[in-house]
Design a protein that fits this description.
With 358 residues, this protein is α/β, with parallel strands linked by helices. It folds into two domains: 2-150 and 320-355, Medium-chain alcohol dehydrogenases, catalytic domain (Quinone Oxidoreductase, Chain A, domain 1, Alpha-Beta Complex); 159-297, NAD(P)-binding Rossmann-like Domain (Rossmann fold), CATH 3.40.50.720. It contains eleven helices and 16 strands. The strands form three sheets. Strands 3, 5, 6, 7, 8, 15 and 16 form a seven-stranded mixed sheet that branches. Strands 11-10-9-12-13-14 form a six-stranded parallel sheet, with helices on both faces. It has a three-stranded antiparallel sheet with strand order 2-1-4, with no helix packed on it. Helix 5 (152-166) packs across helix 6, helix 6 runs parallel beside helix 7 and helix 8 (227-235) runs parallel beside helix 9 (253-260). The two termini are 14 Å apart.
Amino acid sequence: MKGYGMIKAGEAGWMEKDRPVAGPLDAIVRPTVIAPCSSDTHVFHGGFGPDVKNLILGHEAVGEVVEVGALVKNFKPGDIVVVPCCNPNFIDKHTQGTGWANAHDDGKRFFGGFKFLEKKDGVWGEFFHVNLADANLALLPEGVKPEAALMTVDMMSTGFHGVENADIQFGDTVVVMGIGPVGLMCVAGAKLKGAARIIVTGTRPNCIAVAKEYGATDIINYKKGDIVEQIQNLVGGNGTVDSVIIAGGGQETLPQALRLAKPTGNVSNVNFFDGKDVFTIPAPYWGLGMGNITIRGGFCPGGALRIEKLMNLIKFGKVDTTKLITHRYEGFDKIPEAFDVMAKKPADLIKPVVFIKW
């Protein structure tokens, strides 16, 4: 089969691969809608190390089931399915023991459930493999557009995980650092969780407009000075907020977040930092280590149930994820163009999507 991805770090292209084979509990899926992600560009530039080569990229897909293993009960060829970006091995005792179906998978310490891009080829092929189909696939619900459902598999799931880890309560003041597609989903999730004031940092006009539609109340332009000082002046009092969600930026964001979070507050990270980043936190930012500020960083949970619940929020009008989509392409051969747009991030980009007909 044919697929598009990284031949080696920094070099992309089409490649020929053997069609994947389904085990008794697995499924083979043909993509019908895919979306490039910043994580794809991160891996492409060597983010998972120099040994990653000849890898089909992509981890965001809606598709058609073409084959199922003999023990699969819930799916059959022809079903249109939504594929979570994180596909844990739920049989594995490490996965069962963590409480989060995305961490210790097959004994791997981090990202164990994130099999696309690391353990196997991704979804930008003519076919791709999904392990444990009954646990890791969700049927596309009636009344939900495929492209809307596509936004749940990573952008919405990751953004909402940032909100979950921030432990937002009714009436809270929350800062969201970065309003790319994940940050925008953090804004939408924070509003659903009951945040009263949602302060965001960003400069792109289209992202700002969507952030306001999702519930942002205040916009901080990081080009106009130190964001901590701007936010402290905005909120007054002792200059702190209930929770800070980091959804973009570099290694400077964690100390900034600690300066803003109140004692007993929360700092939640869903940003993909670089392996070379080093966090330097002056002790006073964390109350000399005794500020009772909780710091959490997490990769979005996997599995079908989570995606089904997120799609319910779309189906019943709680969130419109299509606001994230700014660039639309038609055809399997348009994947390189969409990937290039994602890598270059023009000013009008939030999220590109490719529609595929076979």
